[in-house]
Amino acid sequence: MAKVHLKKLEKTYPNGFKAVHGIELDIKHGEFMVFVGPSGCAKSTILRMVAGLEEISGGEVWIGERIVNNIAPKNRGIAMVFQNYALYPHMTAYENMAFGLKLKRTPKKEIDKRVRKAAEKLEITSLLERKPKEMSGGQRQRVAVGRAIVRKPEVFLFDEPLSNLDAKLRVSMRLKITQLHKQLKEEGQAATMIYVTHDQVEAMTMGDRICVLNYGKIMQVDTPINLYSKPANKFVAGFIGSPAMNIKEATLEEENGDVMIKISRDFSLRLPDDKTEKVRKYIGEKVWFGIRPENISIKNIGVSGEVSVVEQMGNEQYVHISISGEEYTARSSSEKALLAQHGEKYNFVFDMKKCHIFDFESEENISL
Q1: Do residues 222 and 230 touch, judged by C-beta distance below 8 A?
Q2: Residue pLDDT, tens place only, 254-272
């Protein structure tokens, strides 16, 4: 079984800097797991520790039923796809894909069969006789993925493989990798994939589950829809989603039996009953209030706000508004947002059933 288990994984550098803090994570057989987080959160470091390219300071890496801490990378049953493709410039695409199998003394017929089958999957059969300099970035990346496929590894490791491609190519390549994962599973091959990216769109569209990291610690591991709708803490809430969630410092207060989120002296919002029951013990305390842009809408009723900027996105628009001195972003369909003009005042309604309340100190979501 090509499962991966990270047990109390740690990385400390010689200067004393601790990059990875006791990571505990189970990646299931055949799962597409995405590591996502800001620059410097140690996502690539963790991937390289799984690959054997980075020394482990503490804890264990399990691949299948064995601890691989002291096993050489070539014997771990992994194949890695790098950001910079790492192709041999003097070799053709065919030779690049076949090279690892030749080193293992795989029979020529088997090599040819595997290379051509992988090329067919990735639609690069016509490129097999070309050298890397004769290919585009997207074509080179497909060759790099093909080189990984032919090895039939237990685990595929992808280290920001699409970051060097333009936007259109990134979309087509992420679809191709997602399709490849499904194809390999259908064919009964080991298709466990660990994919590192800083791009949350890649993470949300590709992963079966996503591991959100920050400063070498796991913030949350969950499905894309749960990360978006049920963020475990303020960091995940602010990191996942574009435009980002509106997050404001507030106070919970009780007025005439209602629990109110008081954001400023003259701006309060009533919490619905289901949220009230979960946060009642925090009345009188500071909290963080969060609401996604699509849950703020232009209506004939509601709180008055002034439009500062309208970003045109084609099918939708992002309306930046000022309410009682605080800036918010609302997401609207084009028809509704056409009403919004810079400098004009409109009424906005906050869908409080969709809001989130976070503990001010721990930043944990207390409204779930």
Answers
A1: yes
A2: 988 899 999 998 899 999 9
